[in-house]
Amino acid sequence: MVKLRLKRCGRKQRAVYRIVAIDVRSRREGRDLRKVGFYDPIRNQTYLNVPAILYFLEKGAQPTETVYDILKRAEVFK
Predict the structure, then answer these.
(1) What CATH number does residue 11 fall under?
(2) Exposed, middle or buried, 25 (CB in 10 Å: 0-12/13-18/19+)?
(3) Which ranges of the chain have pLDDT less than 50?
(4) Which of 13, 19, 69, 75 sits between 20 and 30 A of 4, alpha carbons compared?
(5) What does the alpha-carbon distance between residue 13 and residue 25 come to, in Å, rounded to a whole number?
(6) Helix, coil or strand: residue 60
């Protein structure tokens, strides 16, 4: 099963996250299938590759709660 979830990057006390499509059994920093977005909570910036996200959602990928909130805020589900 594939999930859309956050992968931590950046320095100490300065976390930024990549939104990735990843196998459920992989750990948080594990090998991802594809990078589909970027999220910086400090600057509140988001970059989303919407066609790739919609592709994985159509194939049955489940977003985590946090990724779901980010996608909802970006109006991906309309």
Answers:
(1) 3.30.1320.10
(2) exposed
(3) none
(4) 13
(5) 27
(6) coil
**pLDDT value of residue 32:** 86
The helix/strand/coil state of 9 is strand
* The pLDDT value given to residue 36: 94
| Residue the block writes with tokens 């970059």 | 47
Rounded Cα distance between 50 and 37, Å, is 8
Whole-number Cα distances in Å, 16 to 28, 57, 59, 78: 14, 23, 27, 26
Reported pTM: 0.87
Take residue 69 and report the two structure tokens written for it: 């909130």
Provide the residue count of the chain: 78
Structural domain boundaries enclosing 69: 2-74
Two tokens, residue 73: 């805020």
